Amino acid sequence: MTNHIVLFEPLMPANTGNIARTCAGTNTELHLIEPLGFSTDDKYLKRAGLDYWDKVKITYHKNLPVFMDSLGENDELYLVSKFATRSYAQADYSDTNKDHYFLFGKETTGLPEPFMRANMEKCIRIPQNDKNIRALNLSNSAAIVIFEVLRQQNFPDLEQTHLYENDKLK
Predict the structure, then answer these.
(1) So what CATH class is 3-169?
(2) Residues of the chain with pLDDT under 70
(3) Does the reported pTM lie above 0.85?
(4) Is 126 labeled as ligand-binding?
(5) How many helices (H) and strands (E) does the chain have?
(6) Would you say 105 is a known binding-site residue?
(7) Which UniProt keywords are given for this protein, alphabetically ordered (predicted)?
């Protein structure tokens, strides 16, 4: 079982770099669906990901149909959108026999509307006040969702505590 964050045509290198860092710290795989709005050699992308970029398993997909074709029959896909009616916290991610994929839309336009309409049963949202903001930040949204997934899975292979001796890290 593996968890995957999938970014559809991301535009902002800092968001992608921050998400890559979250992936490195949580053993989550990152998928980037092209076209990208930046080069992966971009200095801002590497700065946001710091020295973690090489510690992330990244898969590039030429477009959305190619990504969809890469999914296996036992994989679970979730579309993260503010237009969904079901909260991300209502879904059950505990099945360790499945890979879980969380597809996030482009920062400016989200996921394509026809694709969303055809897959409404897969849609989840992070509750927010839509009157005050248009949407939550992409990298924050990815972190919120992946940590709920990991919580339900009891944080597999992640360090949950640090040992202290005399108020200092051991």
Answers:
(1) alpha beta
(2) 42-51, 160, 162-170
(3) yes
(4) yes
(5) 5, 8
(6) yes
(7) Cytoplasm, Methyltransferase, S-adenosyl-L-methionine, Transferase, tRNA processing
